[in-house]
Amino acid sequence: MVGDFLMGAKKNIQLLPGRLMPGDTIGIVAPAGPFDRKEFDRGVAVLKAMGFRLIVPDDIHIKNGYLAGPDIHRANLINTFFADRKIKAIICARGGFGSMRILSLLDFESIKKNPKIFIGFSDISAILSVLYTKCGFVVFHGPMVTCLGDASRKTRKALLYAVSSDARLAIMAKTGKTIRHGLASGPVAGGNLTTLCHLIGTPFEPMFKGHILFLEDKGEAGYRIDRMLSHMKLAGCFEGLAGLVLGSFEDCGPGSEIVGVVDSIFKEDNIPILAGLEVGHGKNNITVPIGLNATLDADRQLLSFHESATAH
Fold first, then answer.
1. Is 109 an active-site residue?
2. The domain containing residue 177 runs over which residues?
3. Are both 189 and 138 inside the same structural domain?
C-alpha cells in the first residue's frame, strides 16, 4: 500500500502548490511541541516583513505537556487550513515531538484536493513525508516560525525564494564532502533521520526507491546514527536509492565520524553521496522542496532542481 502511494506521488510530482505573492495569506499551525511566545512573535514579524498576511489561531498557544494541545486539536488545525481556500500556504510554529501522533487524524482526501505550500522540518518531517507520499504534491523542508526570528539572512532569503520565485533552485555544498562520486536524478525525499526511522513498520513508512534521499539530524551520537541507518537498510528503505545527500548533523559529534558511518552503511551501493548541505538544524537552513525532481552531482557538490517548486 505504501509503495502504491509512493508510485502515485512520483507520477504526480508535477502537482505543484501555488506560488506565494505579496499580500497572500499564510496560516500557522502547531502540529508538534509547544513553543516560546517571544520566539514565535519574532518569527511572525519576519513573515509580515516579507509581505504576507498571517492567520494565527487563537488557541495555537495551548499546551498539553510536551505537546501543543491534544492530538485532535493539532490535526484539525492542519485539516482546516488546507480546506480554507483563502490560505495559500501553511507553516509550522515548531517541531519537537508529536507529529507522528496526528498522522492518522489528517484528512488526506481533503488535503489532496487543496494542495498548497506546507513548510516545516525536524519532527515535522513525518508530515512532510506523508503529505508527499499520500497526496502527491511538493512540500517544503524549511525553517519554522520560531526559527525565523534568529535565522540567518541566507536562511530567510532561501525560504522566500523557494516559495515565491519561478526560478529553478540549486543548492551548493560550498564546504561539502564528496563521499561517493557520480551523478543521479530523481525526486528528492527525506528529512530528519530520527523521525523518518521511527515511521518504519507503520502505515506511513517511507520508501525511497528511485529517489535522491536527503537526511539531517541533531543531538544524535555517531553510534545512534549508525543504528538508525542500519535499521532502515535492513528494513529495505534504501533499495533502489538513486543518491544520498547529508545535511547538517548538529551536535552529533565529529563530521568525519558521520561520514565514516555513512560510507560504511552504503559501501555496497553504487550511488553518488554528498555531505555538507546547509540544511537542517545548523546556522543556515536552506529550504528544500520534497517531491521535486532534481539532479545530484556529487563531484560538483550540487543539488539542482529541474523546475521551480511552485506553480503560478
1. no
2. 170-305
3. no
Name the grid cell of 277. 548541505
In the annotation, is 216 catalytic? yes
Q: Is 281 a catalytic residue?
A: yes
Render pLDDT for 142-180 as a digit per residue (tens, 0 to 9). Answer: 999 999 999 999 999 999 999 999 999 999 998 899 999
- pLDDT tens figures, 72-93: 999 999 999 999 999 999 999 9
Domain boundary among 130, 164, 198: 164
Q: How many CB atoms lie within 10 A of CB 230?
A: 14
Of the residues 122, 129, 164, 248, only one is catalytic, namely 122
Q: What is the pTM of this model?
A: 0.94
> Whose CA is closest to 133, among 8, 288, 1, 294?
8
Residue 245's φ and ψ, nearest 5 degrees, are -125, 130
Q: Which of 191, 135, 140 is nearest to 162 (CA)?
A: 140
